[in-house]
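Running log. JK asked me to keep both predictions on one page so they can be read side by side. First protein, sequence followed by its tokens:
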Amino acid sequence: MKMRFLLSIDTEAEFWKYIPHPFYSQSLLYRIKWYLNRVRGKFIYAKDKQGLVNIVNFLKANKFPATFNITGHLYLKSCKGWPHFKELKPLAKWSFKKDWYYWDPASNQDSSPGLYAGSYIEKTMKSNSLFDLGLHSFAHECWPLEDKKIVNSGVKAAILAAKSIGIKPLSFSAPFNITEDKKNSEVLYTSLKENGLKIVRYAGREEFPNKSLHKFKVVSPIRKKGLIFVHTSYTFDGTSKNERIQRIIQDIKEKAETSDKNAVYCLCCHDFTFKKIDYLEQIIKTVLELKKQGKIKLINARDLLKTH
């Protein structure tokens, strides 16, 4: 069996700017950087859901499979404001600012196009066999730092949002790659399993707020806690430095030659950074050449259900 390649895209449109990384709450310097990044993002990030559109058009043109883990609210076409499906408000002890649940407006895809993608997903992505459509929380919350009732209500809300346009998500990637915290290591996995999710992208454990134990790996997915775990192999974005892109390209070539035959190279990125598509184009060109040489097999996350 060839090394498998999985492109995993965290899809959050404009939700990136409303809930910051949990570790930012621990430092005034990081808070300042967060606010500056929001200002910077207005000029370099794709507006509304244009980053998603750019990626989808490019992948379709190249017949390239991918998994889009989508923030649950984006599956909607409109909402009456919070709560949407009787979900509970997160305690958000990890957040330093008033979050989504304070300002969530009654709106729709016409008045707030960066918060909704339901019609676009339904028309352009839903029936395309190249794409697996999963979840990326509901409003970009950090669920592993919440209690069980809050996590379960949020997972259910995200599933119901996807169901509103006829999609049953089976895969999940956590915002900030935080799937497991040392103080409450089971809370997210239990909820995902109980609500029918099958696949989770994993990068390592947290010890919030002390440190993150994330690592990149190219390994075979494993089944544990009733889920299939696929490990993050590398991350990049449309705004990454060119040096990182070249390093990833070289890494993919090397791993295609040396990795275990059951390994999955899981490459992750965010949709909103792709105002330009050139970095993705470079990587996809390399992967397609390796596929042509018979050294790599292209998959989406749902394909893992056939072999694990």
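And the second, directly underneath as requested:
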Amino acid sequence: MDRGTGPYVLLTAAYNEEACIEATIRSVDAQTVRPFRWVIVSDGSTDRTNEIVRRWAAASDYILFLPRQKDQHRGFASKVSALGAGLKLLNGDDSPFIGHIDGDVTLEPNYFESLLKKFSADPELGIGGGWIWERVNGEFQQRRGNSTTSVPGAVQMFRRKCHEDVGGLLPMEFGGEDSYAEVKARMCGWRVQAFPDLKVCHHHKMGKTALRLLYCYRQGFMDFALGNHPLFELARVIRRVPSKPYFVSAAARLLGFGVAHISGRRMVPEDFIAYLRREQLNRLRTCRRFRGMVL
């Protein structure tokens, strides 16, 4: 079919993505239904990211390039600020769907066409997206942890009304803005779903083991800031005990959660925490492996 312009806009916050950003742009440009507008925000990049994106924007009628200085204290919240700046650039646009896409993923050509059809078929679908695949031993495999009830932040597509109900992304020091958006969407009566038939290839590599452990440790702080129930956090570690490569990472996350419990602070309101914990305890009660736990 001929490529058309879809009823959606895209936002990307890219920081030093010279190794991947061009492949991301090519995969969006090859979509059977391309975005009406796509704002790529360079979040203080110091490599060739700006050069690559600027070249594509100059030759395109839908890609907008927005460079910005990185925050003085760069953190996960900087991504939210960058996406907010991109959304502001689209002020006045009323496209029915707003999508976030990271600068290190590639999509199959019919990805957005298929996703829009799923939104059309389900008026209660507020956030939708695909299934993450990552390279393992040279081949792409489905990422451990994929879930139909959670859409990765790298490819979250919002129905505009849902985006308005959520109030946009919440800047959080240790990340978790995508999880916050999902829970808030469900609180507002929207459905959140990831679709296994929509393949998303993630090309970023975490790097050395020490960096992976630090990342997982910080995720523990993120979980505490979001308000995760301690039993739910513990269950995550127990579930990964049989898988040695993942156990150490899970233990680092649990350690971060414990340290945050002593010295950290919540980033979300009490009603959010209460709703999230009800969801998490219900998941534990219905999970066959953890039915014996005292809740």
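Observation for JK regarding the second prediction: The CA atoms of residues 145 and 220 lie 16 Å apart.
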